[in-house]
């Protein structure tokens, strides 16, 4: 399968003024069709730097996805840098220019002169339509590899990846399979202990991969299947998940998009139970998290925030000797049990 590198471009990214969410999103979209992204790079708006990192990405991957630097101003340098890297000239695409002009006319505005910069594209590039902005994208060949150039605005970029880039890569690389991912959320293990247990389970196929993501105090176990069709992927995952649950089922509290508080709510409803909270240092946080779930009034009764010693004694009946000098104190197991 092909490998991709992601190059996000912009001073606002390297300086930390904007969080680079584009790279994570693109990687997820590519992984969904079986394209690994072993390399993520971010660089400033500078032509030599962009060209340099395009070269680095070229060594690591079959396709490079670039975002950012396609605007109409002097610091938007990506298209020219890619053309230089690919060894082609920039040429004025009159059709694209007319499309940009038409978009301004539709908004009742005259196109600023500098927007014609967005119609200068690498010679021979495949155009990627942008229905949400003026900056078209393009796909440029570099030997047997490809560079996709996209705007950095997430709304524009995402539509172009899904509608154009992914279909193009599927066609070029003959990608016909599907990738499915299942995440099991566990509690009560260290990563090393969980890994030892999971390593004993035989994988149903080499194209099923297992990954671990610690997110304290949980460990999330990802099962990624790249299969010829969805049914096969589902079968591989189901077989492996069944073995996981057989070994550590009581430590698996949820999967995929499940939230811990939502799972608690479902269990309470199934049992017909109602709950109350008694909190101290958490200051009502537990109650808030529980009631953030829509429909939680079906099982959440009330909450107490007993920060002061007197509140613990008066409202919850915590024995005075626990809180008195010489006793276990407020931050103790004895106090928590009494609460």
Features:
339 residues, single chain, alpha/beta, six-stranded mixed β-sheet
Provide structural commentary.
The protein is α/β, with parallel strands linked by helices and 339 residues long. Helices cover 40% and strands 25% of the residues. It has 13 helices and 14 strands. It has helices spanning 11-14, 21-31, 47-60, 78-86, 94-106, 154-173, 191-198, 230-248, 260-271, 285-291, 309-316, 320-323, 333-338; strands at residues 3-9, 36-43, 63-67, 90-92, 120-122, 126-128, 137-142, 145-150, 178-187, 208-215, 218-227, 252-255, 275-279, 300-305. The strands form four sheets. The protein has a six-stranded mixed beta sheet with strand order 2-1-3-8-7-6, with helices on both faces. Strands 10-11-9-12 form a four-stranded antiparallel beta sheet. The protein has a two-stranded antiparallel sheet with strand order 4-5. A hairpin with a 2-residue loop joins β7 and β8 (145-150). The longest helix is centred in the middle third of the chain and has 20 residues, at 154-173. It is elongated, with a radius of gyration of 27 Å. It starts with a strand and ends with a helix.
């Amino acid at each position: 399968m092909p490998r991709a590198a992601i190059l996000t471009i912009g001073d606002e990214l390297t300086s930390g003024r904007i969080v680079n969410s584009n790279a994570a999103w693109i990687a997820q979209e590519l992984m969904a069709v079986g394209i690994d992204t072993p390399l993520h790079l971010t660089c400033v708006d500078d032509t030599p730097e962009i060209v340099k990192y395009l070269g680095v990405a070229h060594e690591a991957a079959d396709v490079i996805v670039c975002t950012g630097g396609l605007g109409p101003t002097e610091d938007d340098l990506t298209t020219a840098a890619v053309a230089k890297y690919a060894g082609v000239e920039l040429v004025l695409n009159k059709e694209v220019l007319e499309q940009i002009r038409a978009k301004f006319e539709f908004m009742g505005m005259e196109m600023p002169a500098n927007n014609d910069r967005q119609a200068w594209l690498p010679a021979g590039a495949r155009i990627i339509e942008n229905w949400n902005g003026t900056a078209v994208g393009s796909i440029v060949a570099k030997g047997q590899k490809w560079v996709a150039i996209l705007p950095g605005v997430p709304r524009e970029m995402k539509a172009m990846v899904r509608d154009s880039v992914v279909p193009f890569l599927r066609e070029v690389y003959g990608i016909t399979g599907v990738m499915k991912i299942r995440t099991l959320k566990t509690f009560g293990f260290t990563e090393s202990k969980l890994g030892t247990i999971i390593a004993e389970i035989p994988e149903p196929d080499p194209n099923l991969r297992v990954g671990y993501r610690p997110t304290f105090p949980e460990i999330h176990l990802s099962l990624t299947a790249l299969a010829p069709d969805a049914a096969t992927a589902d079968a591989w995952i189901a077989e492996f998940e069944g073995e996981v649950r057989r070994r550590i089922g009581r430590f698996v509290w949820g999967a995929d998009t499940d939230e811990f508080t939502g799972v608690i709510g479902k269990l309470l409803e199934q049992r017909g139970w109602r709950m109350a909270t008694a909190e101290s240092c958490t200051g009502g946080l537990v109650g808030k998290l529980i009631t953030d779930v829509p429909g939680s009034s079906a099982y959440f009764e009330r909450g107490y925030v007993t920060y002061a010693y007197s509140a613990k004694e008066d409202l919850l009946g915590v024995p005075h000797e626990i809180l008195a000098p010489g006793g276990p104190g407020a931050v103790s197991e004895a106090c928590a049990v009494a609460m």
